[in-house]
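Sequence in, structure out.
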Amino acid sequence: MNKLDALRFFVAAAETMNFRETAVRLAISPSVVTRTIAELENQLGEPLFKRNTRSIVLTSFGELFLPKAVRLLEDSEALFQTARDDNEMRGIVRITLFRFPGHEQVLFELLTALRPYPELFIDWRLDMMKLDSVQNRIDMGIRIEREPNPNFIIRPITLVHHALMTSPELIEKLGAPENFEDLRQRYPFSGLLNPETGKVFEYMLDGVDTFVPRHLEFFTTDSQSEIQAALAGKAVIQSSNLACREYLEDGRLVNVLPELKLETWQLYLYRPYQALVPQRIRTVFRILEDILLRHFS
């Protein structure tokens, strides 16, 4: 017996004084009402109704028990409703992302948009590697990949084009490369280290073919530090129009061998599939998508 349901049946029966009408009101069969009331009486050890073939009335015990049952039902409804109202925009939302240009402004705009929800907290995790959504309890993330994982809910933001870049000073110093092999043989490159393996990420041409530079003269685990190495004329880097937009526009970086077409990846916002998604996560996801589209569309 579900005790709360039994109390609801009892209160409804006390209002109608008719088990059949009670059953219609509750959209259940009369036998369920009769059986549940009998089980409740057995649990209490007292009859709640006096019955005959024509009518039912509350017993003295039933009259005393009725206001207590009504109060308990009202309190339970208030408890669940309050908990739902209070929790909808309360709690932590964990977001993982890589360090991209303008991420500070994106965070500022997100926190500004969430000012009406003072009990909603953001856990903003800058990490080069994609954090595990289960182990790290990640609610959503921003990534760049060749193909977004189909096991997530995806919101595409923009396409990201890769190229080989360096400073005009390095090209002037070494002379413009005649072709790709000349670039690979003569120019110094940067090595972006995979923090999980300690090895340099492969240089990709088209998503299938890779190449190994002859000279690796700068190493880092941070893609933004690679850009500084390129700006300083230390190395050629493989980066994107997204990461280097500012420097390409003002001429501090140039695309080496622009006819060489490298990979195009996708910047996207994602969150794991869940049967039940709290309102705070849906709200933050929608706001963050709008902010990213404004910045990168």
